[in-house]
Structures are given as C-alpha cells and as structure tokens.
Specification:
Blueprint: E1 13-18, H1 21-32, E2 35-38, E3 45-50, E4 59-65, E5 79-83, H2 86-98, E6 107-109, E7 112-118, E8 124-129
Parallel strand pairs: 1-4, 5-8
Antiparallel strand pairs: 2-3, 3-4, 6-7, 7-8
Length: 145
C-alpha cells in the first residue's frame, strides 16, 4: 500500500438541506449559540458557525434552502456536537425541550454522556460530553441510536 502524502485533519462543515432557512438558522443560534453567517450576496445558503479565538470557526453547519415539504431525510443518521461537561448536555436538553424541540433524555452510552435533539426539519443532532481523545489513528466512538 502506498503512503498517503496528505490527509484531512478535521471536518470543515456539514451541509443540511432545510425547509425554512431563517427558522433553521434561528434554531441553531438559539439552542447552540452558533453564529449565523449569511452568504454574500444573500442566497438560499446560510452558515451557522461555532466561534473560535482565531476568528475562524471551529466548525460550520451549512444550511441550504430546498428540502421539499414532506420529504423524508435519508442517508444522514446524525450530526454530533461535543460539549465540555455532562451538565452542558443536561442544559441543552432542558433548553431544547423548553423551545418545543423533540429530544431524548440524556444518558450514559458507549462511554460518554449524550442526548439527541431534533431540529425543525427532523435532523438528529447528538449532543455529547467531551470524551478522552481516541488513540492515534482511531475514530472516536459513536452511537447507533
């Protein structure tokens, strides 16, 4: 096998097709504190980004207007967002349910503490407490729920 000269070191963004760009942007801003960044010029695409100290986002969700009404979401199981503590998971669960979002009770699963929150279009967003870094060359654990 030939050695790979260049490897990606992180995910740049996850793109979700949504029914209502403003509603989805508001959801991710209000629940997770992600900062909206409108495309220039205004279009059917918007980003919500986690801020970072160096003014570059740590990650972005790209929201694209165009999920037809009644369409089932397929192919994507979930997006996982990592928070620092179990208390953060509990707080996001509480806020999500107060906002009227569907969410699963926080729980211990596969070595970490997590809950799932469903956005306005039904996308499943895992919120999990930070776990120890995976050994070099291994992916961190994920859930099948």
């Amino acid at each position: 096998m030939t050695a790979i000269a260049v490897q990606p070191d992180r995910i740049g963004h996850v793109s979700l097709r949504v029914r209502n760009l403003r509603r989805s942007g508001d959801f991710y801003r209000d629940l997770f504190g992600l900062h909206p960044r409108q495309a220039e010029p205004p279009s059917r695409v918007s980003c919500v980004c986690a801020p970072a100290d160096d003014k570059l986002p740590r990650f972005s969700l790209v929201l694209t207007q165009g999920l037809p009404p009644g369409s089932e979401i397929s192919g994507l199981d979930h997006v996982s967002l990592v928070v620092a503590t179990e208390e953060d998971v509990d707080e996001l669960y509480r806020r999500a349910t107060e906002m009227g979002a569907r969410a699963t009770q926080p729980r211990d699963y596969a070595g970490h503490y997590q809950a799932f929150v469903f956005d306005p279009d039904g996308y499943k967003i895992e919120v999990r407490a930070e776990e120890r870094p995976a050994e070099a060359g291994q992916c961190s654990r994920h859930t099948d729920s």
